[in-house]
Structure formats: C-alpha cells, structure tokens
Write a structure and sequence with these properties.
There is one protein chain. The protein is 39% helix and 22% strand. The chain is α+β, with helices and mostly antiparallel strands. The chain has a 4-stranded antiparallel sheet. The chain is elongated.
Length: 197
C-alpha cells in the first residue's frame, strides 16, 4: 500500500515523460520531413517548366526539337509533336512525342546524356529504338515520349533554361569567352563545364 501511494505518482510521471519524449521525437521527425519537402518544392519550382500549360508545352517542345537536331536526329518521318497534358491543382504535366527520328548510337547517347544533365523536372516516359543491323554503326530509328512538369507557384518565365549573353563577339582565334552576369544564370561551384550555343 505504501509502495502504491509513494511510488504510484512517480511511476505515472515516468510513463507520462516517456510518452512525451516519444511524441517529441515524432514531431521532430515530422518537422525535418516538412523542411525537406519545402526545400524540394523550392528546388522543383526553380527547375519547373512555365506555369501555364500552353507555354510549358510550347517551350518544352521547342527545347526537345533543338536538342534532337543538335544530336543529329533527322529523317523523312522525323517529327516532334505535342502530346497529352494533365493539369492538376499542384502541378501540370505535359508530354512531347518524338517520332521516327533517325540517328546513330553516338547521337542517341549524346541526346540521353544532355537530356539527363538538363536541370528540368522531366523524364522519358517510353522509348522505342529499332536498329536495322548489328554491324558497324547503323542508323537507328528512335521514337519516345518525354514528359515535363510544372509545379504550382512557379514564376512565369518565357525561357525554359536560364540564358545570358556573351560579353563580346567570338572570333575564330578565341580560346576563351566571357559571359555577362545574370542572376538566373548560376555558375556552380566548383565549376562544371557547360555547353554554349
């Protein structure tokens, strides 16, 4: 009886303390997850397509067409056409189809590399590659659907990727070029080479 009268309240307090510590751990974990989600959302907005579905699809299609041409995609049936769109409250997804593009393995590899390196919210949804032969470097027939995403709350922007201008015209003998500063054109530290067009 003395044990229950004296130690009972102490045991109850220990149990309440244990429950409070567990609840505190859960809240701290939820707070960390919230901060990670907020940081991801901020990053996603930076890499997002334009917020308007029409603009997003137009600039994404133009970018894919330019990238495909740069990587040697060609052919009589080659076309880049807008695909389906899905407009939700939190995001907009747009797709672009590249059909019957002819290229070699080097061109396809370069396209995939540059596609992956582009800091955009996008992916290749499906890909079909047909090869007429296995000897040498045959022309490949490539068709795929690329999907890009725009996150709600993204700032309106006309360009898909940040741009800047060169400080001066480039001559045939130049070995260095200088770009004008632009807040949206961030050069990573440590410096990583990037492509100039």
């Amino acid at each position: 009886m003395v044990q229950s009268i004296v130690m009972g309240p102490v045991d109850d307090m220990r149990e309440q303390l244990s429950k409070a510590e567990q609840r505190n751990e859960r809240l701290e974990k939820a707070d960390r997850l919230l901060k990670i989600a907020q940081r991801n959302l901020k990053d996603w907005r930076y890499y997002s397509l334009p917020p308007d579905a029409d603009d997003a699809q137009r600039v994404y299609r133009e970018w894919l067409f330019d990238l495909a041409k740069q990587c040697g995609f060609a052919g009589p049936g080659f076309e880049v056409i807008p695909g389906a769109r899905s407009v939700q409250k939190e995001f907009t997804a747009v797709s672009v189809e590249i059909k019957k593009a002819e290229t070699d393995l080097q061109g396809l590899t370069r396209f995939m590399y540059l596609f992956d390196k582009a800091q955009l919210l996008h992916r290749i949804a499906n890909l079909k590659v047909d090869s007429p032969g296995s000897q040498g470097n045959p022309r490949l027939s490539v068709s795929f659907t690329a999907e890009g995403m725009s996150v709600a709350g993204t700032q309106v922007h006309a360009d898909l990727l940040p741009r800047t201008k060169l400080a001066s015209a480039v001559t045939e003998t130049d070995t260095e070029i200088k770009a004008l500063p632009n807040d949206k054109f961030v050069v990573p530290e440590p410096f990583e080479p990037f492509e100039v067009r």
